[in-house]
Design brief:
By secondary structure, the chain is mainly α. The protein contains 4 helices and no strands.
Length: 77
């Protein structure tokens, strides 16, 4: 997953306004309490950040494509 795809999905699933707040403020348990922004800046793969965010926000796997069933979202590792 490219970084641009990560941001597209975050905006589509959580809404553009809320997504930026989540990325900046929500500490992800699965990523040693880093925020999305901190994890990405530290070099964590966007796919891993995406799934950590979705897991913590309890987004079902079948809804992680942002409503675009043709979009292939890489599975969690």
């Amino acid at each position: 997953m490219r970084l641009s795809e990560f941001w597209e999905l975050v905006d589509e699933v959580f809404g553009k306004e809320y997504s930026r707040s989540l990325a900046r403020d929500l500490h992800l348990n699965a990523l040693n309490s880093l925020t999305c922004l901190e994890a990405l800046e530290a070099g964590t793969d966007p796919r891993d950040v995406w799934h950590a965010l979705c897991d913590q926000m309890e987004i079902p796997r079948d809804q992680r494509d942002g409503g675009d069933r043709k979009r292939l979202v890489p599975p969690p590792r």
